[in-house]
Amino acid sequence: MDYNSAYQASHNGPLTPTVRNRIDAAKNRLNLTLAEIGEKFGFSGAFISTLLRTSNPGRIRTKHIDRVIDVLEKLEVEAGIRTAVSAH
Known about the structure:
By secondary structure, the protein is mostly helical. It contains four helices and no strands. The longest helix has 15 residues, at 65-79.
């Protein structure tokens, strides 16, 4: 995936606040720990924690964004936040 400002603040940069909030909402709705949601994304719980920080959020390589958004949309469906996975 090429850099998309809807998902990342900059190329190889942090997730946008909207994406961070969506991940946090799905995590909370599904009662998942950071380790559990990290496993679903293929990352450690500690890395997810850095990505979700409000102040100085962690950076993520742009090449991982497709996977992150695919997993996020599936989690949102599972949590009842959205009804279907979109083609982004």
